[in-house]
Amino acid sequence: MVRIRSLTALLTYVIGLCGMIPLFPWLTTFPRMILVVGLLSGLLQDRRGSWPLKPWIQNVLVVPVFLFYAFQFDRTNPVQPVISVLAIMLSVRLSGEKNVRHSLQIYALSLFCLASSSLFDLSPIFLVYLGILIFMVALALVLLTFQNQDNAMMVTVAELKRIMFYALMMPVLAVPLLVIFFPIMPRTQIPLWHFLNPKATRATGYSDTVDPGSQNSIAESRSLAFRAEMPRQTQNQLYWRGTVFNRTDGIKWTRTAQVPAEQLEISRQTVTQVIYPEPSTTRTLISLDRPVAIALPRVKRSPDGVFERIGATGKRESYRADSYTRGQVTQRNYANRIFYLQMPDHLSARVKDLASEIVLSGKDDRSRIAFLENYFRNGSYRYSTKDLATGDKAVEQFIFDKKQGHCEFFASAFALLLRAAGVPCRLVGGYLGGEYNELGGYYLVSDEKAHVWVEAYVDKIGWMRIDPSSFAFNAAEVWTVSSPRSLKFRINMALDSLNHSWNRSVIIYDFEQQMNVARSVGSRLQGISPAGIIRSSLPYFIGGLLCAVLYFIARRALVFCPREQRILSRFLSVVEHEYGIQRGVGLFEIACAANNSTISEFVTIYAGAIYHDRRLTDDEYRKLQKNIRMLNGSGSKKT
């Protein structure tokens, strides 16, 4: 026998944990401590069967906590006080007696806590917790109905199984409705919880400036920056364009938004990508270099190939981009040389001397660029993120003394020397490379792939992409693309593919995608031919019908045999399973061997009918069914 009250108490703790665990990492220290104390206190008191903390005492203790967090409420970040109050209220209820009313309060608070955790991270694991919570709440509500009728009610294991089956069927039957209604229900343009979301604090792998002398080492972050659905590309095409830096003071490079107009000649041979950026504060839209178009409702496009979103940032979204990836773009009009030859007021003598040498190396921009490329290739420059030059003369030290640095040093020095030699140029910030997920068909690009390179303008050719970092003597070691095939790598790719599918299909499923689905379904329905469907499905229908006929023919002895034979077969199976008595023994021998009153009653009723050449009456048949149900679980394989 199982006590209903004990089972509902256990389910209440499971439901409470489903609300606590996803929210726990986002809480501050005090609410975490209260949650742990409340949970342990509730378990201890339930084990003892006494609850010294009365409900009115708990309510009084919650009031000052509520007031404390109410005064901490801030419009800039309202989430933390709210979730702290929810967590503490859940802890208080878990620490008290679990009567019907308090249990219902715990279920509601657990649902609110789980929903609050989605403000911070709405990953596929959220769906796991939600599924567990829904099934447990459905079962607990049914059991609470029995507990409300009789607080000391006890049921058998068989009865409990039936109760659990019917209780769990309710959410199971609701799942198909969820699947049907999710793609068709109306979508709000602003997410319901978005006004509460805290501002994203994660910055992307690049910033709005290039400042190579600011620190002596660079720590690499492996945080995901974005995913890009597209076919696999060669390494030299995986330059992801973000922003352009067109002004310099000799060390730091920044961006001026007012840039000269560019009339470009773009080939139609473009690569299409669907970009899924991680939430961040940047307005820059990343795409393969060089983007031709980005499909997003509100986008600001600059002539130098920079796209920026207009409006709120920090939420999950996706957009389509079309890019021309050859690394060279023809410009029909001449570039504004004055704008792209802007220089700092003062240059060191060593930089001026090297610039003069570059000028003397050739009469046109192309030959001067070639000279500077050879200078870097043969200058023993080393790519490194440690022991970097710092201070106001960091770029000069990199060129002539240290000769080691990361991409910002290479690009800044190269562009500074080009401008000093009269070659228009600018810096481009973005990413380089990425891991291709074969399972999902997309690239994963992390913050450690952040990169800076140079675009130089050459008359009659246009803008050329130049990556000075590739001229380092150890560039092959840095940019060699490995092909990991370890089990861990494949598991990580599979898990990331699952996470990406969740984000794409659930998190960022909006009104626009809903309309796309509707249009796709509509176009497919218009192309449907009823006659064609009938012709194509007829072979499958006939095959299925033949399989069904063969199955019923093979099972005809079981399907069409009289009910007397069917119930005898069930009886013999139960006796064999519970008492170990093999088939082939007579009914009266079974009754003697089992020495069980229920078996003896079955044999008497069955033999009284069959051995007198008559069919079982309905009352007799129901009694025999009851006897079989009573025999289930009653034996212990004894003979």
Describe this structure in words.
By secondary structure, the protein is of the alpha+beta class. Helices cover 50% and strands 13% of the residues. The chain has 21 helices and 21 strands. A hairpin with a 4-residue loop joins strand 5 and strand 6.
Q: Work out the helicity level.
A: 40-55%
What is the rounded distance between the termini? 26 Å
Amount of beta strand: 5-15%
Based on DSSP secondary structure assignment, what is the total number of beta strands? 21
Largest sheet report: 7 strands, antiparallel
Strand order of the largest sheet: 7-14-21-20-17-4-9
How many structural domains can be distinguished in the coordinates? Answer: 3
Gyration radius from CA atoms, angstroms: 37 Å
Shape: elongated
Number of helical regions: 21
In terms of per-residue confidence, which ranges show pLDDT below 50 for 5 or more consecutive residues? 188-204
Give me the secondary-structure category.
alpha+beta
- The overall average pLDDT, rounded, is 83
